[in-house]
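Recap from last week: sequence in, structure out.
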Amino acid sequence: MSSIRTAVFPVAGLGTRFLPATKAIAKEMLTVVDKPLIQYATEEAVAAGMDTLVFVVGRTKNAIIDHYDKAYELETELGLRDKKALLKIVQDVVPSHIHCVFIRQSEALGLGHAVLCAEPAVGDKPFAVLLPDDLIYNKGGASCIQQMVDVYNERQGSVIGTQTVAVTESDKYGMVAGPKLADRLSRVDEIIEKPSPAEAPSDQAVVGRYILTPAILDKLKTTKRGAGNEIQLTDAIAELRKSEEIYAYSFEGRRYDCGSKIGYLEANVEIALQHEELSADFKNYLKNLQID
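Predicted C-alpha cells:
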C-alpha cells in the first residue's frame, strides 16, 4: 500500500473573474477572513499526512512562492520584538517537515496539463490534487482530502471528490455516474466534462479534490484538447477508468466556490461566524447591521 505523501496545487490560472483585484495579485492569495485561499488548501493537505507540496505556477504567481518561502527579515523582527504568537503564525505557514516544490506551467493549457507538469515531483506514487478555488470546510470533522485518503487506503484506487448539484448547472462541472457501493461512495462508470443538462449522466459534479494513481500521467500525455480547447483532467480520468477502478466520494463538509464572487463572499461570512476570535463580535455586527 502506497501512502499519499504528495499534494499538487495547480495555481497558474489568471483569475479573470476577480479583475481588477487579480491584476497584480494571484487569486489564490485572496484572503478568506485571515488566511489566503492557498493556505486553506495546503493546511488541509498537511493535516492529511502529506509532506511534499507541489505548486504548478504561472509567471505572475511570485506572491505564492514568497508566501511559502522563509521570511527572514519578518521573523527576525518579530523575534526581536518578542511577538511570539505572530512569529508562530508566520513559521507555521510551512511546518519544518514540509518540502515545497515550485514548477512553472509555461502555457495555460488546462488543468490536465498542469497536473502533468507536476510529474517530475510526483514520480511513480499516488498523489492528491487540490484546487484552492474550492474551499471545503468541515469544522469538527475530517477534512475532505482526509476523507478521500481514507477511501483510497481502503479501495486502492483513484478517488474523485463530488457533490450534488442542480442538473441545470452541469455545463459548469465534470459530471460522473455509476453504481453506489457504500454510503457516500460510488464507482465511476461515466465521467463527462461540462455536459449540457440534457447530456448530464447524473447530478453528481466533480469538485476540486482528487486522489490519483500515477497511471493518470501516462493518460494525460496522450489526451487531446477537449472543452475550452484545453487538456482536461476529466478526459484523462475517463481513459484511466477503462483500465482501473475509479471511485466518486460525496464528501462531508461545505464547499465554497471561491472562484466566483458570491462563493468567495459566502466563505468570508460563514467562516468568520465560526472563527474562534471573531465570531462573537461578527455575529453582533450582523445582528445590528442596517442597510439604507
